[in-house]
Amino acid sequence: MAMTGKRRVLYRQGSGFWRMTAKWVLVFGALYLLDGGLLRSWGDAAVWPMIGLLLWVPFGIGVAWYPKRDQLVALTARELRVRRKRLPMEKVNLLHVARLWLEGQSTADAQPVLEWTRFDRVVWVPLQDGRAFGVEFRDPAAFAKVFGAFAVTACGGPDIVRARAAAATYPEPRPMRPRPTNDRGSWPDLLDIFN
Known about the structure:
The chain is 46% helix and 19% strand. It is built from seven helices and eight strands; from the N terminus they run E-E-H-H-H-E-E-E-H-E-E-H-H-E-H.
């Protein structure tokens, strides 16, 4: 949990740019040390950092990072931010989120949330009007844990959530737009909600 100005950030996910850059530097730095220390001279081994820099722009940025740039997410008590777009909590169906978290369910499939593995996965955020939009996470279970606990607290606790969920009628959230099978990102869903 971090403080940004006066708002408390409950969950933050970066775009992965610096992690990807650090891995790139580590690989080509190791090649430089290995080549310079064991095989050839340090001057001849200086070609590895240059190769790394030349390959970093098209492959590191263009192939590895650019498709995942929309994974920059921050959750506060007032809003969910995806890159520079903001979704106020008043539009989110927190009762549905809290009910799902207490039951350990997911809107996407029958797999319990706590069994989600750590890989890129779309998490559907339900809205008050019955729609849901997808946001991609590298660790979806960690986001679901924070968001579910926040929703339960915001709705007044587990007992109040169960009582309100039993009495409330709201439409089952549905994704805004069916995702094509070859679509790798959640950008079309975000365009629907933030326009």
